[in-house]
Amino acid sequence: GREPWDFIVFNDHTQGPARPKSCEATRQILLEKYLPLIAENGATPIIIETAAYRLPDIMNSQDLGSTHEFQRRVKEGVQSYTEALQSKLPSSIRPRMAPVGSAYLHVHENNRELWETLFDPYDGFHPSPSGTFLQGCVLHCSMFGSPPPLPQTEMEIASLWKDARMMHNVKMGGDVPLPSVDDAKYLWETANEICSQNE
User: Is the dihedral of CA 182, 129, 199, 149 positive or negative?
Assistant: First the structure.
């Protein structure tokens, strides 16, 4: 047979769980198409709670409200995904939410300047390198119960991106900065704090 996996990570379009119609459609697809595969494999499903956009009027998201309201909707939708899966899976398989959006919101509330750097500066919704670092830390915590090793130097931080497929649309110009050592530490601590609250 196939080698079993430890985890299966799911990521929905950010507005998907925030809108009732698309949220319901995703729940149905999870139950009809993915549930049998998850049950057969025995892996733990992890669904990423993505982050509300940096700007309230991009990608036709005006009706989703403020950053807080948009994030609340995303989180509730993702929680409905994990609950739908849990209702049909054996108790030995416990779906989890990776609270990336909640971690972004924590930064929004406590360090607005850093929060703005979590997004690609050219589109305002994809993660920047700093946002990617935070997402990676949250995913690691969600999987293993603790954050990954904290990079201690700029060289260690740069090494995390040495094999990056793409940083942003190169047609847009200049490089997007990597997180500083201090910012990486703050984001690492944020991931740890948010994940420990989410258990």
Answer: negative
Residue 137 host element (H or E): helix 129-144
Query: How many H-runs (helices) and E-runs (strands) does the chain carry?
Result: 9, 3
Contact 102, 198 (CB under 8 A): yes
H or E element: which one contains 87?
helix 67-88
Amino acid at 21: K
User: How far are the Cα atoms of 119, 152, 170 from residue 116, in angstroms, in the given order?
Assistant: 6, 23, 20
Residues for the chain: how many in total? Answer: 199
Per-residue pLDDT tens digits for 80-121: 999 999 999 999 999 999 999 999 999 999 999 999 999 988
Q: DSSP assignment, residue 42?
A: T
